[in-house]
Amino acid sequence: MERGEVWWVDFDERRPVVLLSGEEPGGFRAIQVVAPANIEISGVAVEVAVGAPEGLPLGGVLRVALPRPGLIPCTWLVTLTRADLIEKAGSLSPAKLGELDEALRLTGLEQVDAAGADG
Q1: For 104, which of 30, 72, 109, 115 could close a Cys bridge (C-beta 3.0–4.6 Å)?
Q2: Any idea which fold 5-110 has?
Q3: Concatenated DSSP letters of 73-101
Q4: What are the residue ranges spanned by the domains of the chain?
């Protein structure tokens, strides 16, 4: 189980996540795949599209909110245990992982991915 892998988990319903770290003492850090905003969100959040190439039956996005004063951004970040991971769906390509890295950097969350970069 490595950074960039796409897994199915059960959050009251079966949902896909992308692992942002390898297994650590506290579990795996991951980001949920959510539906695209379908409105203009530049300046508010960054979305990285995922879908069939990553092993998913439907398209979605990895969305991270840009920090702004007086706002607590929702980033859909979660911490999971090995038991939470139901089934591997696929993996992000190196290019797609680079897009996610850039989104995390823009939002100030690069430490999330950097902490788990070595697996």
Answers
A1: 109
A2: SH3 type barrels. (2.30.30)
A3: ----EEEE-GGGEEEEEEE--HHHHHHHH
A4: 5-110
